[in-house]
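Could someone model carboxymethyldethia coenzyme *A with this protein?
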Amino acid sequence: LVTAVDHVGIAVPDLEAAIAFHRETFGLEVTHSEVNEEQGVHEAMLRAPGDATGATQLQLLAPLRPDSAIAKFLDRSGPGLQQLAFRVTDVEAAMSALRAKGLRLLYDEPRRGTADSRINFVHPKDAGGVLVELVEPAEVH
Ligand code: CMX
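Reply:
Sure, complex below.
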């Protein structure tokens, strides 16, 4: 079902400040950044310099709007770990397999995630208190 831990996501109030902190403190490098309007986030992906392409990344997530998932998370919990993302080869198949085990998925159909990936989430109450994202990466041409 799961082929890799794709990324770990941290909610931050200020994306540029968080990127600078992770670069200057831990030496991480930004590989990608984008605005995802539907998810209400301005986000960046970072990796350790020794990691190969495809290694687990760190995702920094800043809110675009006060009613977004990240803004609500920051209001409730403050900055910190918000999600664990598993890479899958077929997000619909993963959704079916998890639904068959009685887990609740947040969306009926996959939505657009980072870099045109297809994503869904398992409700944190059904995954040990962790918001689990399923990520099917876009095909690389
Ligand atoms: N991790 C663990 N638990 C969480 C959580 C998180 N990130 N977010 C909420 N919860 C908990 C709450 O604390 C609450 O627990 P209690 O009932 O014990 O207080 C419970 O889950 C349900 O909370 P809720 O008020 O019903 O729901 P919220 O409005 O907090 O929304 C969630 C939670 C997961 C449905 C919402 O954050 C969501 O839709 N997330 C998916 C989208 C997302 O996170 N987008 C940003 C990232 C985009 C990307 O990765 O590309």
